[in-house]
Amino acid sequence: MKAVGLTRYLPIDHPDALIDLELPKPLPAGHDILVRIEAVSVNPVDTKVRAPKDKVEDEPRVLGWDAAGVVDAVGPDVTLFAPGDAVYYAGDITRQGSNSEYQLVDERLVAKKPASLDFAAAAALPLTAITAFESLFERLNIDKLGADAGHKLLIIGGAGGVGSLAIQFARLAGLTVIATAGRKESADWCRALGADHVIGRDKPLTEALAEIGLKHVDYIFNAADTDAYWAESVAALKPQGKIVAIVDNRGPLAMGEMKAKSASLHWEMMFTRAMFRTDDMIHQHQLLAEVAAWVDAGKVRGTLAETVSPINAANLRAAHAKLESGTMVGKLVLAGW
């Protein structure tokens, strides 16, 4: 089967940073399903895993943690899917990724794709949907059904893939959403997705919030840079408020004011359930099914911004380079082999 992968970790402008491969078609066992990949998306995790380091893989490593496709075969323990089902998922970072014609993935991490979306649009959603859903409704413990309606959520990095869905999920829960955006294009995107307010990055958060009549917010979702916004976030957070972060911190985070406010910091890593094979791993199947229902009901719109064909090393290198440039709004998808 065709695949794109690496054996060395190189800068993206190196022609061997990602290479075209021919690999054996795998066979499913246990709870695995074998998916014929129709479309894949790129995410910051792809570029972070691929980033230069002194390591050489004995066998090619395939990246990619966003996919939509069709079930080709199933393992003997599979109960949720059958061959021919159209599915979408993010998968498991400890296994071979989705940048291949066929991929094995545990059925408990997969859901049927939204019927209203084609494969490209569906592939733009899973990783960011899981991250936004788990961050808001599990880490911050916001009530999906509206019990926290009116509470104020600040999303740092509203125009990215995760922020784009966090805006929409938070609005479904009745929250007042404030998003940060650095460019007019990004600000327009956030407003179109339902953000109540968009603030720039040229002022401290407390100053920008004051200009829209807010002293504090109840929740902060940092989807951009944990260190750079830490002190400002703590200052902008309401006493007993909550922060969720998805980007690793590079240095120590001062906790004195967090303690004084009895505030809490929560980390979100959407691969946790797959990495540790937690007892509730099937929750990712369930939440992706719920997101698909929201999409099909018109409550959530897709975040696909650009589609490139075919799926090959050259196009994936270009996609990684664009993501690393920091200019992406929405999601970039590659479709077809």
From TrEMBL:
**Subcellular location, principal:** cytoplasm
Protein's UniProt keywords contain Phosphoprotein: no
The places in or outside the cell where this protein is found are: Cytoplasm
The protein's assembly and partners: Homotetramer.
Cited NCBIfam families: adh_fam_1
The family line of this record is: Belongs to the zinc-containing alcohol dehydrogenase family. Quinone oxidoreductase subfamily.
- This one is known as Zinc-type alcohol dehydrogenase-like protein
